[in-house]
Amino acid sequence: MRTNLPMTNRLVPVVRALGASALDFKLGIRMLVRYPGTTIVGTAAIAVGIALGTIYFEVVSKWQNPRLPGPYAGRVVSIRNWDASANALDPHALHDFAVWREQLKSLDYLGASLPFDRNLQVDDGQLEPVHGVEITPGAFAVVGQAPQMGRALTQNDAQPGQPRVAVISYALWQSRFDGVSTVLGQSVKVGTDAATIVGVMPKGFRFPVNARIWLPLRMDGSQLAPRTGPSISIFGRLRPGASLQDAQSEIALVQARLAAADPAAYAHLRPRVTTYAKPLGGSEFQTLTRIIYGVNVVFLALLAVLCTNVATLVFARTAARGWELTVRTALGASRRRIIVQLFLEALVLVGLATGMGLVVAKLSLHWGLGLFGGSAGMPYWINDGVSWQAIGYAVLLALLGAMIVGVVPALRATRFRVGDALRNASSAHTAIRFGAVWTLVIVAQIAIAVALMPMAANGITETNRFAQRADGIGAAAYLTARPEMDRAGYGTDTATLQTRSHAAFAALERRLLQVPGVEGVAFASRLPVMDQFKYHIAVDTAGLVRSSGIRTSTLVQVSQGFFATFGASVALGRGFTPADFANGSAIIVNQSFVRYVLSGQNPIGRRIQIVSGEDNSVAGKAWYHIVGVVKDFGWQMPLPQEQSALYLPRDPETIANVSLAVRVRDRDQFAGQLRKVAAEAAPSLLLTNVEGLEHVGDREAQINRTLTWVAWVIWFVILALSTTGIYALMSFTVTRRTREIGIRVALGASRSRILTGIGSRALLQIGAGMLLGTILISLRVESFRGVTLLILTNALMIVAGLTACAIPLRRALRVSPMEALRADG
Predict the structure, then answer these.
(1) CA–CA dist 298, 308 (Å, integer)
(2) Of 99, 264, 618, 787, which one's alpha carbon is 20 to 30 angstroms from that of 69?
(3) pTM for the complete prediction?
(4) Distance (Å, whole) CA 84 – CA 267
């Protein structure tokens, strides 16, 4: 019986073909211990490059080539209509679904799903918004997944008039029903409809994407006109032996018949069959795919740069072994054999870095998944694991890195004549030189370190700013949520939906203000702790638009009670009136706007234009009249001039991504009542992300905090590479010029002249790097704090550079003339 060889056994022939042995790997490990500075800095630098490349590869693979869990993963497909004239998807395919289900023979099963977000209410009376789907019976069999408890949906469940039933996810079963087996047969309320739970799906199953509850789909597409009805998703499973091409060819024939019968509806529709969850292959998606994969070149270039930096250190280490390489060559070792040895030594270093990089990639993927709500907030086939394909990609990166780190220095280090080197031991050193490339690398490293540190330090300030915002407005007194309407039954009837939304939001505000302890209710496009978007604006001066009047300012859409809820008193003019919400021409500004945009002039009656587009064009845009000024609150920015804000009056239903804020005397007591009060006021309203105001910006703060840490890690790695590179250069210079130093000491040269002669190159590199980095970062320095950081950064680089030079220079001053002459004699 033939068995697969372990990976180590498979590598043995490759290693032998290179003329290498286990001794080379042992020597590589010894080099790690012998040169700890190079080991630590080199491993960290390469690990960063491999981790970034692996993370990108894994994320792209999960998005571009998703794979469902289950026995039929490779046969599950999606079918979507592509409108060639609009170059967009047309999801209104319920009529086509009915046709395809009858005529497509290459599929075992064809199903459809209609997503929804509704309030779920159980026996305890607590409401919770839940994401689910109405789905055709038999859909679970498509992916070969049976319920863990109870039964799946049946064809009888989908018949009109039958009692409503539901299947719930494992996570919902655990969180709302405590995982008890008596959940089967329990009645729940989904939206306004009651349903009986008949099944529980296994842990992790959330097909089609991220469902937590499944209801039977009771819609007959054959009774609808083409391209009408709700937006649905269609999926199926290929028959054994059938391919994607077979299914695509068959559906194209069906489509041709439909187009012949109804050209007005089907002339531009192109149904496409793809692997389930794979992005649709339109022309713009294909272009995007090429761009996405092309970005890999950036990570390859980054790894190459990092490895080149490490190669500088390895080159200095190799140069110090010049006599060893000479002796080995004289004893019969070929240049190829020495290069292989140095390559394998580098491979040991890069292999250690690869292991560290994979660990960092795994932790980063886990963090990234958690940032978006964990596995519950992502498609259920997405996980935080590192695939074997990504590990293989990391190995390829490691081989590339080892070639740069090991082979490039080896090729330069083996350029000497053995006879000359044996006659004069210094020839083994003097034949090896630091070229211009290494000098440029060190200068670039110092420049990047100088430019990056102020940006990294600014990240700390930005992170603290999130907490400052919350403290500045007493965020502990506010409870927030994201309200939205249950859109079930409205389809494309946006007019009716907006009318119902207006009534629902008004009812919610009235009901909340009736609750004892509630002191204010506000709706807004952005809450005070959130990061704000800047808009270009134009200021009308005496009826004339100044060409120089284009500025930027925060723009927030607010409801009637916004300022009162947040205690922002009107300092000048008036607040909004109901008439302002009707005509929409009024605007209120804050004191920073008056100070920095209007130069302190009286703002009342002035006109403001919100400029859209990148060109700052003011033609054809509406003008708003300033009717009042409020005191500054929230949205603290690093620079005072960035704190200017504009407020537009808008009813909640017209605000995209509206947020709700409720000021209460006892937030902890009220938190459990908010959803119940909302359901009593308007059952069609869903409240998600219910949390204290101080936590609203947590995600942005966490992202900023993580990016700040990443910036500091990169800065530290670059600083370490720079200082270690300078140290390697100085050590190499002292080793190569030992005889010269001895002679100069014997002739009476002063210590200062020796130090200047040896250290001048390193000092020039430090100065050039600092100058270049200062020029780069000065383009972004806009405050005294930024200038201070820049000065501190340069001071730190001087200290680091001089420290890197100190030890080799001290060794140079201790060179004895007799020892120097005897060593080269």
Answers:
(1) 15
(2) 99
(3) 0.74
(4) 9
